[in-house]
């Protein structure tokens, strides 16, 4: 049986001579734009969690029948739901912009014999995929086709 | 608990990665149609009538799409919320908070699977 992973496995055997800042949140983090954006990016997790839980209602309503579906659509028209889904839309766009900018930088130099495409090209490909998926969903779920 | 989370780390990162990538690709289209467009009457009435929505989400691709829209944001959300808690509260409660959040994501994913398979 495999041993349990040791949380300190990657720690150096002796403390190094380089001083590092303590891993604590500075009291003035709200006044630091980079830290604020970083925390905001993490905070989109709360919105995503709620979006997933609310989307569960969509599947249950479809399984339950036409009356449940109509009731769901009426409840989604409630201003609180509209506000929440609008915030979720802004959060998803924010995550996309930030993550798709980060993603090309996080690629390994090569995977076996293959090299990833140049960063600007990879960035453009992610936006193209995002646009294509969104357009496809708008066309199908928006009633344009089929 | 912490040791278990470390052991599950590769699986958690896989689901988190799928959540942030595929979840973010899917969410704007879902939010603009099912969550906002249809309820606010911005789409043609037949676009997401029960019959049409049922037709779309009862075929295998539609079920997979709906499962992705529900489950993937849950994993992205759980991991980033855990990360936010570490940033704001420190590591002391990380094992408990992380376990609860991943348990919520797992329960939600199982419920989503049952729900999409229940669409007849």
Task: Please give a structural write-up.
The complex is a heterodimer of chains A (146) and B (120). Chain A has 146 residues and is an all-alpha fold. Among the domains of chain A are: 31-92, Up-down Bundle (3 helical TM bundles of succinate and fumarate reductases), CATH 1.20.1300.10; 107-146, no CATH class. Helices cover 62% and strands 0% of the residues of chain A. Chain A has helices spanning 33-64, 66-76, 79-102, 119-141. In chain A, α1 (33-64) packs antiparallel against α2. Chain A is extended. Chain A starts with 32 loop residues before the first helix and ends in a 5-residue tail after the last helix. Chain B is an all-alpha fold and 120 residues long. Chain B has a single domain, classed as 3 helical TM bundles of succinate and fumarate reductases (Up-down Bundle), CATH 1.20.1300.10. In chain B, 81% of the residues lie in helices and 0% in strands. Chain B is built from four helices and no strands. Chain B has helices spanning 2-35, 50-57, 60-89, 94-118. In chain B, α1 crosses α3. The mean pLDDT of chain B is 95. Chains A and B meet through α1, α2, α3 and α4 of A and α1, α2, α3 and α4 of B.
Characteristics:
heterodimer, A: mainly alpha, 62% helix, B: 120 residues, mainly alpha, 3 helical TM bundles of succinate and fumarate reductases, elongated
